[in-house]
Amino acid sequence: MARVIVDVMLKPEIHDPQGEAVLSASHRLGFGNVTGVRQGKRFELDIDGPAGEAALARAEELARELLANPVIEEFSLSFAE
Amino acid sequence: MARVIVDVMLKPEIHDPQGEAVLSASHRLGFGNVTGVRQGKRFELDIDGPAGEAALARAEELARELLANPVIEEFSLSFAE
Questions:
Q1: Residue-wise DSSP of chain B
Q2: Interchain pair A33, B25: CB under 8 A
Q3: How many CB atoms within 10 Å of residue B59?
Q4: For B38-81, how does the pLDDT look when each residue is reduced to its tens digit (9 = 90+)?
Q5: C-alpha span between A61 and B76 (Å, rounded)
Q6: Partner-chain residue, chosen from B22, B42, B58, that has the shortest CB–CB distance to A7
Q7: Tens digits of per-residue pLDDT, A25-35?
Q8: Nearest by Cα to A7 from B7, B62, B73
Q9: Taking every pair of C-alpha atoms in chain A, what is the biggest distance, in angstroms?
Q10: B7: CATH
């Protein structure tokens, strides 16, 4: 079985109110040296078969069709360590 | 500036309805070889100073205090590539 990680983040030019809320809260908590926060989603997919190109390709298809909104989000794929 | 990634996932023993919804949807879309999905959060933190132990320690504090709920979630830290 392959475990593929799909990280989905808003594109850099898209406003991220969740991240901004976390940034404000971190300053209120005394973390003044935090200068930026972006919040996204992480998916751990278990896919039948070996951890190879086929599993990555399948995960990429799923990310395009279901996990990410290509209008506002971008994603990256990796195998779990 | 250091960019630290904080990945927050539900603990393995905690029921993950979001992940299960994604799993069901992936099967409906024909991705029958996807056998499990867990959904979590990913934070990208920009922290003043070098990408070293101090930045990681600060990110860990912030994760404990704000980003993760220690009752039901676990987190991991890494530097952005």
A1: -EEEEEEEEE-TTS--HHHHHHHHHHHHTT-TTEEEEEEEEEEEEEESS-SSHHHHHHHHHHIIIII--TTTEEEEEEE--
A2: no
A3: 25
A4: 999 999 999 999 999 999 999 999 999 999 999 999 999 999 97
A5: 26
A6: B42
A7: 999 999 999 99
A8: B7
A9: 47
A10: 3.30.1280.10
SS3 A43: strand
Are B44 and A37 an interchain contact pair (Cβ–Cβ within 8 Å)? yes
**pLDDT at residue B28 in the model:** 98
Chain A contacts to B (CB-CB under 8 A): 1, 7-9, 19, 22, 25-26, 29, 31, 33-49, 58, 61-62, 65-67
R_g (Cα) of chain B, nearest Å: 16
Residue B37 pLDDT class (50, 70, 90 cuts): very high
**Both tokens assigned to A11:** 């594109």
Q: In this complex, do B33 and A49 lie within 8 Å of one another by their Cβ atoms?
A: yes
Cβ atoms of residues A45 and B34 within 8 Å:
yes
The pLDDT value given to residue A81: 75
Give whole-number Cα distances, A42 to A27, A33, A79, in Å: 25, 25, 13
Structural domain harbouring A13: 2-79
Work out how many domains chain A is built from and give that number: 1
